[in-house]
Known about the structure:
Chain B: Belongs to the binding-protein-dependent transport system permease family. Chain B: One of its GO terms (biological process) is transmembrane transport. Chain B: One of its GO terms (cellular component) is plasma membrane. The complex is a heterodimer of chains A (about 325) and B (about 325). By secondary structure, chain A is α/β, with parallel strands linked by helices. Among the domains of chain A are: about 90-170, no CATH class; about 240-315, no CATH class. Chain A has helices at about 45-55, 75-85, 100, 110-120, 125-140, 145-150, 155-170, 185-205, 215-220, 240-245, 250-255, and strands at about 5-15, 20-30, 35-40, 60-70, 75, 90-95, 175-180, 205-210, 225-230, 230-240, 305-310, 310-315. Chain A is globular. Chain A starts with a strand and ends in a 16-residue tail after the last strand. In chain A, about 45% of the residues are buried. Chain B is an all-alpha fold and about 325 residues long. In chain B, strands 1-2 form a two-stranded antiparallel sheet. In chain B, strand 1 (about 170) and strand 2 (about 175) form a beta hairpin. The radius of gyration of chain B is 24 Å and the shape is globular. Classes of the chains: A alpha/beta (about 325), B mainly alpha (about 325). The interface of A and B includes residues 85, 86 and 164 of A. Iron/sulfur cluster (SF4) binds near residues 294 and 317 of chain A.
Amino acid sequence: MSRLLEVRDLHTHFFTRDGVARAVDGVSLSVDRGEILGLVGESGSGKSVTGFSILGLVDPPGRVVSGQILFDGQDLVAGGEGALRHLRGKRIAMIFQDPMMTLNPVLRIDTQMIETVRAHVDVSRDEALRRSREALVAVGISSPDERLQSYPHQFSGGMRQRVAIAIAMLHKPDLIIADEPTTALDVTIQAQILSEVQTLCAEAGTALIWITHDLAVVSGLADRLAVMYAGRIIEEGPTSRIIAAPMHPYTRGLIESVPHGKRHGALLSQIKGMTPSLLKLPSGCKFRPRCPRADDACTPEPPLEAARPGHSVRCVHPHTESRIEVPTT
Amino acid sequence: MIVYLVRRAGQSVLAVVAMAVLVFLGVYAIGNPVDVLINPEATQAQIAATTQRLGLDKPLWQQFGIFLGNAIHGDLGTSFVYGRPALDIILERLPATMELAVVALILSVGLGVPLGVWAGLRPHGLAGKTIMGGSILGFSLPNFWQGMLLILVFAVLLGWLPAGGRGQTTEFMGLEVSFLTLDGLSHLILPAINLALFKMSLIIRLARANTREVCLQDYVKFARAKGLSGRRVVMVHVLKNIMIPVVTIIGLELGSMVAFAIVTETVFAWPGMGKLLIDSINLLDRPVIVAYLMLTVLIIVTINFLVDVIYSLLDPRIRLSEMKG
Ligand SMILES: Nc1ncnc2c1ncn2[C@@H]1O[C@H](COP(=O)(O)OP(=O)(O)OP(=O)(O)O)[C@@H](O)[C@H]1O
Ligand code: SF4
Ligand SMILES: [Mg+2]
């Protein structure tokens, strides 16, 4: 059976006045039905653009230049807008980072939910309203009838994100792309929403791509991790393997900069240097200027290759040993 | 909501009173109307009698009180030229001006919003650039000159439309209107376009700028991610957000539309209030000038009040915060 989503060698570029920003430059990843994939990387590494590319929502001056996005066997890049519109919201949904900005401020919640239902199924307004109410209850919103008649500004951030999740779950999609949906929220609300989404997706059999720059958030959630750097996937594999034995020097740096209880207060190891500008990337391995292991073998750029079964890495000198300190979670 | 309306109405009344003070000071208190009214050979006694009859010997604040008291009863003086109450003369001309202003407003919003949104959705396309180019012309060429050009092209060169006047009018809800007869309509088109062009250009630019801004918002992307049709995204999600600034600007501009009508009415010999004002200034018919100013203020203040009500209906954030406050 084919995988639910398979992205092959995706390139999405922004044609700006200053030059071409290769925000996504050869990303390949895949998601199985019901699986949770954590897409991790620093700010600007191209995580959001990858998510938007899958849904065909890249705004000009950006565009998907090449690659394949196979969803349930159908190529979304070749299919164009017509094919995508019927998948969006129905089989692939998205949740955004800033809940303050995702709901239209001048439309009532019921309007924004009912239109989502009726965009895909031909039901009466009453039936659409009934489904909307049900979806709100499922994400833990009490007195849904009152809430439906409110405007977004009457809700707190966490509440708005719940509404956005309820909208995403309206059609029980096969895949949800969640773009840092908890980053803007309080830690306690973050944890609640995290576990709610996990439960909902498990119940509905929905696969999840959870985009984040915070490894700690995703390590307890994801089945597999894909680590992005400068528009590429540089390491990909089962979450437990990557946390215990990261092979790419960048991933290792990321993990070691996550604080744990035991080392609290100790100096965290940091990745030196800055994220490179997309307009002038180094030749060879894009991590080369920051990498402690770099040498002449690192040009040309290494491909993403399986180092162990199900665990691939884009590096000529990968770490092969486990980390000394395995975090206890 | 009620509290908001009452407070807003209070502000409107204040604005009218403030304007009454200005009009009074500007037209009545500066200079001595007796000099204009009375025969230059009059005796000192006659001058004193007239001054007393007009109440000009009283202190300024008392004069103002009388002026205001009369104004509230609809008495803004008697026209020197027509010998009839100035307000009646203005009111006779009001429907012509309002018809012109309303048709011009409908034209400028009805064409300006769709053109602006279109240009905003495709800012780099040929159509978008053409629309913007046109709006710059509509914006920067003087109004009277545009009017004369319209007359030159459509009345003189092509001979399609009459150059001036109001044409045949019919009774509609107790008012004389032009738009219901073919002849009246043909007279209405050019002045309405002339009056609409400037506002339309303004609305195009406003709608375009707001469309571009709204389209970048997350909620538009989210609406698309929900699988809505492009039509629904634009007609509901984008349009409802850009209508808030558009309605504001319409409110601000409708009043100035009545004022701008002075130019258009003069160019097209349209028998409205604006043309009457110019004639009255030439004839030094003070009561008519005062009546014009007071009535215009009243119209503008009323329109602004109505716009604020519509505005609060459009934007739930205002409605609620004002409700609490
Ligand atoms: N509208 C745009 N115009 C030009 N370049 C853009 C645009 N949107 C994104 N980019 C480029 O794409 C790069 C990747 O952006 P993206 O939003 O995918 O990063 P991210 O990994 O999601 O980061 P963050 O954690 O900050 O959300 C940016 O650094 C930027 O150079
Ligand atoms: S390829 Fe070389 S430079 Fe790149 S991460 Fe591996 S060791 Fe470092
Ligand atoms: Mg992002």
